């Protein structure tokens, strides 16, 4: 059986002393994030991190003992980016939730892989601070504990779902365009389906237009972030109406 010291969470162990090589857990975590951001989470390994830092792989195990600990450090580093400075934290629940959601969206759009790869990470101090800020955002709503939790869950669902969808659309834009033969085959297939009469709404939407040109027209000139913010305002306006919560004055939809 492992001793208490050996089995303790990484957060309960002090950083290695000055007699060891001068690396920090923050350095290790930020290096791991940089690798994941540029090459994907699968590229992250202790060997790769050690190479980036100019250290021996075994040296890093003095700071981080397991892959789970590395994942925990990476998650907590991301959570540190989500935190809102205390002097910038809005007083009204609507503004506070908007600020938390926007900041979370901004961070996750920088690290979209994290939604899949870090979901089982052990919560660290910054994750706890983020949850505390989220609770502080809804503290003045007058809702009971289940109501507050439901509200936070709704906002989280919207944030995470929007990040996943936005990241998918971004990847699609960056991917190579289909070749002309494949596009023509897809158009012929669509026309055959339209001819059945089973897709009147889809046919009306495309109206014979090149399908690759329809979506930019439908989306308009709004940026990803502006579309997210608009949807968030609609969600929070609905929450305010449904739950009987006050809106900030003046309220900007």
TrEMBL record:
<dbReference type="InterPro" id="IPR036271">
    <property type="entry name" value="Tet_transcr_reg_TetR-rel_C_sf"/>
</dbReference>
<dbReference type="Pfam" id="PF02909">
    <property type="entry name" value="TetR_C_1"/>
</dbReference>
<feature type="domain" description="HTH tetR-type">
    <location>
        <begin position="22"/>
        <end position="82"/>
    </location>
</feature>
<dbReference type="InterPro" id="IPR004111">
    <property type="entry name" value="Repressor_TetR_C"/>
</dbReference>
<protein>
    <submittedName>
        <fullName>TetR family transcriptional regulator</fullName>
    </submittedName>
</protein>
<dbReference type="InterPro" id="IPR050109">
    <property type="entry name" value="HTH-type_TetR-like_transc_reg"/>
</dbReference>
<dbReference type="Pfam" id="PF00440">
    <property type="entry name" value="TetR_N"/>
</dbReference>
<dbReference type="InterPro" id="IPR009057">
    <property type="entry name" value="Homeodomain-like_sf"/>
</dbReference>
<keyword id="KW-0805">Transcription regulation</keyword>
<dbReference type="InterPro" id="IPR001647">
    <property type="entry name" value="HTH_TetR"/>
</dbReference>
<dbReference type="GO" id="GO:0003700">
    <property type="term" value="F:DNA-binding transcription factor activity"/>
</dbReference>
<dbReference type="GO" id="GO:0000976">
    <property type="term" value="F:transcription cis-regulatory region binding"/>
</dbReference>
<keyword id="KW-0804">Transcription</keyword>
<feature type="DNA-binding region" description="H-T-H motif">
    <location>
        <begin position="45"/>
        <end position="64"/>
    </location>
</feature>
<dbReference type="GO" id="GO:0045892">
    <property type="term" value="P:negative regulation of DNA-templated transcription"/>
</dbReference>
<keyword id="KW-0238">DNA-binding</keyword>
